[in-house]
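Issue 218. Parser rejects a valid record. Input:
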Amino acid sequence: MTNVLLAAAVSLLLALLGTPLAIRLFSRRGYGQEIREEGPSSHAGKRGTPTMGGTVFLVSSIVGYAVAHLVTWTPPTISGALVIFLMAGLGVVGFVDDFIKIYKQRSLGLRSGAKMAGQVIVGVVFAVGATRFPNHYGFTPASTHLSFLRDFGPNLGPWVFVVLALFVIVAMSNGVNLTDGLDGLATGATILVLAAYVIIGNWQFRQSCTADLIFHCYPVRDPLDIGVVAAAVLGGCIGFLWWNAPPARIFMGDTGSLALGGVLAGLAFTTQTIFLLAVLSGLFVLISLSVVVQVGFFKLTGKRVLKMAPLQHHFELMGWAETTIVIRFWIIAALFVAVGLGVFYVEWMPGAKT
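Output the parser choked on:
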């Protein structure tokens, strides 16, 4: 538990103090946000706001995780390292995308094919690594089964598992990216999901099959260290949100949104809660679906379901204030997290044992 607190505290402090330095540096170098011409007119005033702020909480999280292990003199685990790699790798893809936007002075960065290729390469390395490195109990960082509260169903095999992992990784990274359209919206929603994974990692550690073969124990390789990773990213996001909350003085950019989507996917696979992630990240799923429905319906009928997609921009065009939308969407995200944690705990309630 000491590692969890240390990682969160160090990461939070670094992000809180480092973000204003990044704001000054990026402003001086002209690393400002480009705005979509077809977006809401209220966004015009955001043009030029420093972007690529995701680099701050990305670095803060990695340093926080490392310092926690150094101070307690405990080695990092392969599960933690793989999730950190997934987050950092997707962050690099997002950084390149952001840099091209800034260099070319346009709202589009990497071509979709190149961006997808980067996500696939990083995702494949994570997926392959996650099915290797068994500990002396035979547990690998991730399982090749489907999972909700724990594994179920037949073994998918390594190739199908890689495809599943890529789908979840790309879906989550793009989901957070789509949500990152209003000041603080994606950061705040991600904080709530990360907090859930701190709880899940610690609970799985206390009920681990490596300690005792109790009823409903978890055959998870490194649950406590997964909680440390979640805490490190959580602290970094909280520190960043101080400056990213409305009115934002810096944006996370694709550097941050792709990295956050990656870390959430990595946490789900290493805690064997793949489908539970869809509940915990319900806001991201809802916003992603709004884009799918909008595009699909328009192609079929030539008409739009929403005034604009993603969903948050629909409410902007209806006249809702940005702060109102952000806070209400945070509430929705919190409700999804509460439902997800409730479902996770159900099997431990009195009378649930069979």
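Fixed in the parser; the record now loads. The beta strands are 146-147, 151-152.
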